[in-house]
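Dissemination and training. As part of the outreach component of the grant, students in the summer workshop were shown how a complex can be specified as a set of sequence lines and then modelled as a single object. The example used during the hands-on session is reproduced here so that future cohorts can follow it. Participants entered these lines:
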Amino acid sequence: MGKDRLAAFSDGVIAIIITMMVLELKVPHGADCAALKSLAPSLVAYVLSFVYLAIYWNNHHHMLHTVTRVDGLILWANSHLLFWLSLIPAATAWMGENFLSPLPTAIYGATLLMPAIAYFLLERAIVHQQGRDSVLASAIGRDLKGKISPLLYAAAIVLAFVSPWLSIALYVLVAVMWLIPDRRIERVLREG
Amino acid sequence: MGKDRLAAFSDGVIAIIITMMVLELKVPHGADCAALKSLAPSLVAYVLSFVYLAIYWNNHHHMLHTVTRVDGLILWANSHLLFWLSLIPAATAWMGENFLSPLPTAIYGATLLMPAIAYFLLERAIVHQQGRDSVLASAIGRDLKGKISPLLYAAAIVLAFVSPWLSIALYVLVAVMWLIPDRRIERVLREG
Amino acid sequence: MGKDRLAAFSDGVIAIIITMMVLELKVPHGADCAALKSLAPSLVAYVLSFVYLAIYWNNHHHMLHTVTRVDGLILWANSHLLFWLSLIPAATAWMGENFLSPLPTAIYGATLLMPAIAYFLLERAIVHQQGRDSVLASAIGRDLKGKISPLLYAAAIVLAFVSPWLSIALYVLVAVMWLIPDRRIERVLREG
Amino acid sequence: MGKDRLAAFSDGVIAIIITMMVLELKVPHGADCAALKSLAPSLVAYVLSFVYLAIYWNNHHHMLHTVTRVDGLILWANSHLLFWLSLIPAATAWMGENFLSPLPTAIYGATLLMPAIAYFLLERAIVHQQGRDSVLASAIGRDLKGKISPLLYAAAIVLAFVSPWLSIALYVLVAVMWLIPDRRIERVLREG
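and obtained this result:
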């Protein structure tokens, strides 16, 4: 019961974040190709963030499937995740308007790093409530992707001050890495 | 289960896109008829896009009825559709502010063409998962409307550089063509 | 089934409209009383529209309770209602920024009149589907409120060019008239 | 039935308010540290309001669990609460843009005080409907937190004209006080 409402609320917030982001795509003044081209960097940033938020929704979807009871810790770990996700549109807009500037590119990485940490904490909160033998605990296993991603984000943040292109390449790489939904959970659920 | 949450998330995103579009109706400065008249092209563009998004919601609604199990491919085909739909408000605002300019009219057509393709791909993903004998597969049949619409959008995109009025007439034509919800699926569902 | 999704989608759209309206409350520049006072007319307009949208949500809620099956006509009558409701934020902002100007006050009345008509049409579509002996048909009865409201809106639209204060008084009057949820439906539902 | 839709609608509105607030985080012009630093006060205000809205969602979630039937009074008390919550983003933005100015700090306190009162009234409306012996009535008990909070808000509003820092400290204090979800209700629910 509480779990369904938690899932619905989270879905709602992520749906709003994902679509609100498009409001930052400021419609260009003028009706010619130059106006359209000036939108290109914002559009690239938008696509990247859209994919990230879709990945979060996707994996969050799978993770909540394994929850049987919601407690206060899970509620707050979830709100914490939503908070960091809610900063992505602002960072996306800033990076899009100042494409390849070091600081905005680094800050964008920070707004990817923080929800990754928050997602990890939510995972812990669920395992803590469900027990070490739960579906989620065994599905995560060593969780290589979950451990590598924050390192890659951190590297990208530092690299932004050397070459913003490299940072963006790393952001794309991590997104691609996660694009496949978490088969581990699906498999364990089927086997269990 | 997963299907319900997919439907709810998609509904949420479409509901937000459809209502967010109205934020692009910039309230005119001044309180006279001239201020109101300056809003007319934006309002026309808004009505057209509202109808298109309502059609998508409607048909998406019918299509998901036929799904029994959601897999990763369907999830991503659905996110892909939502991505293209999310660009409609920006294109609507650009066309409204530059009414009858060739490029914005053509771009608007492109933001209609892309979700049409994405919808087709989602249809394929569902048929792929449900099998060739599924309700959806037999309901779609030859799918004349689905095949003609992209051609009409493509024609409208080219025509925008000749006569934007013609393009808009084509956009209206396709909308009218789709206004009737997909009786084919309803009929097959009733018979099956 | 379809009915639940229709209700959820409508709720979503109304929830977004109602909260999006607050984005039109432009935060005043400056931090003194004058800045705050300049917000007063927009705030009055916001409260009025909030109440109207809450009334629509409320009555829509009651009306959908009586539906047993959703058909294409109901779907489109519902989208039609949502379209007109979606114009309320823009009209509210325009009236708030040009308080007591005749044209914005009249246009605001028009954006109240149109959803009233759309609501009436939705009611007809439901009765048409459910039959003359349905719960809704007997609950509506003569429907005095539903018939008087459009007349009062129309009067307010005309009066706006004489005295905008009178129009606003009429808008408030109709809102107060509807504030009590539709006991008729509740009563018939309990008796049936 | 009605209760589920009420919960869903309220969740929707709160989800939109919470995420819409981030739109007020105006992306800084320029790509350097100064631009980022200028965002700091708005970010602080945003975090504070995010926590408050999450607390309201959380406690509202628990409170609605105890409702068995929704009547007109509860519906309107709930809309009344949502109205006051909807003003928080505007007040947050104003306080963020005029950090430590007395009037915006006081007004922010007012937009916290009003939903606190509205929440209290909603509690009364539920107890009135459920009876003095209901789960909620016994769970609330003396409700110390609920009685102290409005006093602290009121004190903060007055103190804003002496020292805005003190007011903000009080706002943080009350938030911390509420961060723990309402164990009282959880406990009584478990025992009952």
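The mean pLDDT of chain D is 87. Students were then asked to discuss how this feature might be tested experimentally.
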